[in-house]
Amino acid sequence: MLINVAICDDEKIVSDDLRSKITRIRSDYCIDIYNKSGDILGKADKYDIIFLDIEMPEIDGMNLSVMLRDQGYRGFIVFLTSHMEFMQKAFKVKAFRYLGKPVNPEELEETINGAEKEILGRKSIVISDYGADRKIFAEDIFYLKADGNNTIIRLEKEKITTGKTLKSFLDDLGTSMLYQVHKSYVVSFKHMKIIDGDTIYFQGIDDEIPVARRRIPAVKKAFYSFVRENAKPI
């Protein structure tokens, strides 16, 4: 699985050293470096892990992390600093870990292993949205609709059109959460409320999705199985 990493530190020698240490642990990671804190704004969605130096000019790491979360970044933020008194503030922006500088290779490897384990459990796909890369998590998708050679992604508050096919979504996200109910529709069982006749209704949105009549028994069986497996005890 390709993991995309960003290092944001105004000291080039520090960022180069961290990239070298990460590469020794995971040689297949794709790593980008930002030596100006503001340069990563608007680009963060493509990264699974962002290493942020807390003490940077222009925008410090703590304020930058707040801005990234406000922009919807849901990946893993790892803070880098020489001053451990910042640790308590890190919890406010849901930082994944906190590494002292210089970075200890063993602690770095432990951090990478921990983040990777969680990343593998969160299926996602990167699409082009108005020319910019955007990461879409499977858990946020309500349904997918074929639209000619394109696919419409229905999220809670928006619809996005992409050139990827329905098949490519199923191949890439290959999760029990998504199920093809019609030649033109793939739905998420996580957000599905009920199947009534040949129509699917969702929780949180008013859209209604048709089910191919011949697929109704299989869809019901798969949906009820998903509900049983994911039911939480009271």
CATH level 3 topology of the largest domain: Rossmann fold
Got a strand count? 15
> How confident is the prediction overall: mean pLDDT?
86
H/E element sequence: EHEEHEHEHEEEEEHEEEEEH
Structural class: alpha/beta
Strand order, main sheet: write it out: 2-1-3-4-5
CATH H-level name of the largest domain... which superfamily?
A: Response regulator
Number of domains: 2
Counting DSSP H or I runs of 4 or more residues, the number of helices is: 6
Distance from first to last alpha carbon: 36 Å
- The dominant shape is elongated
Q: What integer value in Å does the Rg equal? A: 21 Å
Strand fraction equals: 25-35%
Overall CATH architecture of the largest domain: 3-Layer(aba) Sandwich
Q: Report the helical percentage.
A: 25-40%
Low-confidence stretches: none
Description of the structure:
The structure is a single chain. The longest helix is centred in the middle third of the chain and has 16 residues, at 105-120. It is built from six helices and 15 strands. Helix 1 (12-25) links the parallel strand 1 (4-8) and strand 2. A five-stranded parallel sheet has the order 2-1-3-4-5, with helices on both faces. With 234 residues, it is α/β, with parallel strands linked by helices. It folds into two domains: 4-120, Rossmann fold (3-Layer(aba) Sandwich); 125-230, LytTr DNA-binding domain (OB fold (Dihydrolipoamide Acetyltransferase, E2P)).
